[in-house]
Amino acid sequence: IPYLGTMLVQWMWGGFAVDNATLTRFFTFHFVLPFIVAAATMVHLLFLHQTGSNNPMGLNSDSDKIPFHPYFSWKDVVGFMVLIMSLVLLSLINPYMLGDPDNFI
């Protein structure tokens, strides 16, 4: 970025070269970013739940809708349980199957 590029790079690096301050800043950023994304998602879902979504086409699509909670929630719970059970069985029956061969040197 012209006129701001070097200043921005020095601010992000915490100096003129990559150093301990740079690693600390990037580790902190990578730790905090998922929480910021989760909070933004929760706020988005809260606003969407309160106001509802808009319909720019103006078409009425109420006839082919089914409620989310009992049907899709149950489907997600069953899928989650199948995934967890398969991973538990994999780790109990053959725990070294997905391991790196270099671990056995």
TrEMBL record:
<dbReference type="InterPro" id="IPR016174">
    <property type="entry name" value="Di-haem_cyt_TM"/>
</dbReference>
<keyword id="KW-0249">Electron transport</keyword>
<protein>
    <recommendedName>
        <fullName>Cytochrome b</fullName>
    </recommendedName>
</protein>
<feature type="domain" description="Cytochrome b/b6 C-terminal region profile">
    <location>
        <begin position="58"/>
        <end position="105"/>
    </location>
</feature>
<feature type="transmembrane region" description="Helical">
    <location>
        <begin position="77"/>
        <end position="98"/>
    </location>
</feature>
<feature type="transmembrane region" description="Helical">
    <location>
        <begin position="26"/>
        <end position="48"/>
    </location>
</feature>
<keyword id="KW-1133">Transmembrane helix</keyword>
<keyword id="KW-0830">Ubiquinone</keyword>
<keyword id="KW-0479">Metal-binding</keyword>
<dbReference type="InterPro" id="IPR005797">
    <property type="entry name" value="Cyt_b/b6_N"/>
</dbReference>
<dbReference type="GO" id="GO:0046872">
    <property type="term" value="F:metal ion binding"/>
</dbReference>
<feature type="domain" description="Cytochrome b/b6 N-terminal region profile">
    <location>
        <begin position="1"/>
        <end position="57"/>
    </location>
</feature>
<dbReference type="InterPro" id="IPR005798">
    <property type="entry name" value="Cyt_b/b6_C"/>
</dbReference>
<comment type="function">
    <text>Component of the ubiquinol-cytochrome c reductase complex (complex III or cytochrome b-c1 complex) that is part of the mitochondrial respiratory chain. The b-c1 complex mediates electron transfer from ubiquinol to cytochrome c. Contributes to the generation of a proton gradient across the mitochondrial membrane that is then used for ATP synthesis.</text>
</comment>
<keyword id="KW-0472">Membrane</keyword>
<dbReference type="Pfam" id="PF13631">
    <property type="entry name" value="Cytochrom_B_N_2"/>
</dbReference>
<dbReference type="GO" id="GO:0016491">
    <property type="term" value="F:oxidoreductase activity"/>
</dbReference>
<comment type="subunit">
    <text>The main subunits of complex b-c1 are: cytochrome b, cytochrome c1 and the Rieske protein.</text>
</comment>
<dbReference type="InterPro" id="IPR027387">
    <property type="entry name" value="Cytb/b6-like_sf"/>
</dbReference>
<keyword id="KW-0496">Mitochondrion</keyword>
<keyword id="KW-0999">Mitochondrion inner membrane</keyword>
<dbReference type="GO" id="GO:0008121">
    <property type="term" value="F:quinol-cytochrome-c reductase activity"/>
</dbReference>
<keyword id="KW-0679">Respiratory chain</keyword>
<keyword id="KW-0408">Iron</keyword>
<dbReference type="GO" id="GO:0005743">
    <property type="term" value="C:mitochondrial inner membrane"/>
</dbReference>
<keyword id="KW-0813">Transport</keyword>
<dbReference type="GO" id="GO:0006122">
    <property type="term" value="P:mitochondrial electron transport, ubiquinol to cytochrome c"/>
</dbReference>
<keyword id="KW-0812">Transmembrane</keyword>
<keyword id="KW-0349">Heme</keyword>
